[in-house]
Amino acid sequence: MEVVASAPGKVLIAGGYLVLERPNAGLVLSTTARFYAVVRPLRDSLPADSWAWAWTDVKVTSPQLSREATYKLSITKSTLQLTSARESTNPFVEQAIQFSVAAAKATIIDKERKDVVDKLLLQGLNITVLGCNDFYSYRKQIEARGLPLTPEVLLSLPPFSSITFNSEVANGTTTGEKCKPEVAKTGLGSSAAMTTSVVAAVLHYLGAVNLSCPGQSSGDNATEQGLDLVHAIAQSAHCIAQGKIGSGFDVSAAVYGSQCYVRFSPEILSSAQATGGTSLPDVVSDIVTQRWDHENKQFSLPPLMTLLLGEPGTGGSSTPSMVGSVKRWQKSDPEKSKDTWSKLAIANSALENQLRILKGLSENHREAYESVVRSCSHLTYGKWTEVATNQDQELIVRSLLAARDASLEIRLHMREMGIAAGVPIEPDSQTQLLDATMNMEGVLLSGVPGAGGFDAVYSVTLGDANNAVANAWSSVGVLPLLVREDCHGVSLEDADPRTREVSAAVSSIQIN
Ligand SMILES: Nc1ncnc2c1ncn2[C@@H]1O[C@H](COP(=O)(O)OP(=O)(O)O)[C@@H](O)[C@H]1O
Ligand SMILES: C[C@@](O)(CCOP(=O)(O)OP(=O)(O)O)CC(=O)O
Questions:
Q1: Residue 296: closest CA among 257, 266, 267, 268
Q2: CB atoms within 10 A of CB 94
Q3: For residue 172, what pLDDT is reported?
């Protein structure tokens, strides 16, 4: 038996920093970048005395990092003990395995199904993790080979290419010391997608949830409960592995897909955080019985809108240190920061409302919507009002312009926040680029996703205006990424994605 599960990467288009505090919402889009986890047994048959084993074996392979780690898994405690070299460990996958095995044991009470879990565990777990290229930065290699910074060059990379390590620390300064290098990534939430895909694959493999393949989602109660279990376990494992409780929007997007997210109360994880004393099975029993109070309201881009991401440089920014600076500013200047906070909350919810209105208009007035959006895609925003020839079309243009204004307002207050907190949330170089982008034909929104900084820029364009924006970005040294919005969350896959790539290549050879 083999189980393959995948989970998407994310882009937070609005709500950075605010989403750390309930009840502020963040608008998060899930993407075509997916992380895959493949679970297989390590051995097909079991010796007669295996029922008495206290330990089983686990192997975790990350082909892209050329890493393989082996462990012993305690059958009763669900804990792992490393049996290979320390350098190859992956804390996210380790926590994902421990929490998922403990959760399967805690939630499966039927005797027969419990026996199946024990048998599957005794056969050992062979887990492979694979992240789409979109999660990783190839900018340095492209530049080193003197190739242009275009999406076509990214397309020419083989799928699941090896990942390079940064020789610099996250904030771009070299340490000079021989420290463990960071993976060069694009900020799509590889660790959250990886953790979620492993949790989903292990829970499904052990029969604790019943995930569906894309397009097969039944949307019934059992499926939803399954997703909620994946969410609770993935959030817990991710927080423990990264040693802090963030807002959790990245894990939520990896589980439920594009959404309007309100964070869970951090107290839910106090048992998981308590060091010493509590055993993992007790922690997990507590976590699965907690009332998870996060919100994941359905939300995605209206039709004929394209999410485009660009990598403006190398190095990126360190999210935790930026969050630290913003929090210090909130403490030192509560009045001003509250003011910025409430202006941002208003602008974020205005953007959400306008995008929801546009979605509704696209459903109820399809023809008018399509004609307006296609016409506006060839025009700069100043001329958008000219395309409306009836009331429906006027409504659509009004909403497009209101969404655009909300985007500008968000940028203004994010910049303000950055200046006040002394961190470049929207650095000057990005401001110039984003202003120029906003003035191009068919551009609706743009900004710095998530915590901002030097990591990435995004834009949402109308019709096929994304091509011109990508060309403009390439010409100024910003690498347009291949990734787009895809609202689907975690899902089951029918095969190892590497075999699918091979069969796709074979069929394309046959077709040609
Ligand atoms: N393919 C992979 N194999 C193993 N570990 C990976 C892989 N991709 C990402 N990771 C882990 O995830 C970490 C990056 O996670 P994080 O710092 O949260 O960045 P992101 O913004 O992409 O989530 C890496 O340092 C590495 O530990
Ligand atoms: C500041 C934040 O609200 C948003 C950070 O968003 P990013 O998308 O920048 O996240 P990373 O992938 O962790 O770098 C922190 C949070 O919500 O946890």
A1: 257
A2: 21
A3: 42
- Say whether the ipTM exceeds 0.85: yes
Determine the average pLDDT of the residues in 238-253.
95
Residue with CA closest to ligand 1 atom 20: 189
Averaged pLDDT for residues 199-222: 86
Confidence at residue 506, expressed as pLDDT on a 0 to 100 scale: 52
Ligand nearest to the CA of 450: 2
What is the three-class DSSP state of 250? helix
Quote the pLDDT of residue 214: 78
Give the distance (Å) from ligand 1 centre to CA of residue 131. 9
Burial of 86 (0-12, 13-18, 19+ CB in 10 A): exposed
pLDDT at 177: 36
- Closest ligand to C-alpha of residue 417 is 2
Give the pLDDT confidence score for residue 80 in this predicted structure: 96
Averaged confidence pLDDT in the chain = 92
Residues 60-107: pLDDT tens digits? 999 999 999 999 999 999 999 999 988 888 999 999 999 999 999 999
What is the CA(450)–ligand 2 centre distance, in A? 5
In terms of phi and psi (left: phi > 0; alpha: psi -120 to 50; beta: otherwise), the region of 79 is beta
460 C-alpha to ligand 1 centroid (Å): 26
Q: Domains of the chain, with CATH numbers?
A: 3-137+185-299+488-511 (3.30.230.10), 305-480 (3.30.70.890)
Check pocket membership of 187 for ligand 1, CB cut-off 6 A. yes
Residue bearing the CA closest to ligand 2, atom 15: 17
Q: Is the CB of 197 under 6 A from ligand 1?
A: no
Which residues are paired to 131 by β-bridges? 35
- Mapped onto helix, strand or coil, the DSSP state of residue 61 is strand
Burial 401-437 (b: 16+ CB within 10 A, else e): bbbbebbebbbebbbbbbebbebbbbbeebeebbeeb
pLDDT at 182: 64
Pocket flag, ligand 1, residue 64 (CB < 6 Å): yes
* Mutation choice for ligand 1 from 38, 169, 191, CB with most ligand atoms inside 8 A: 191
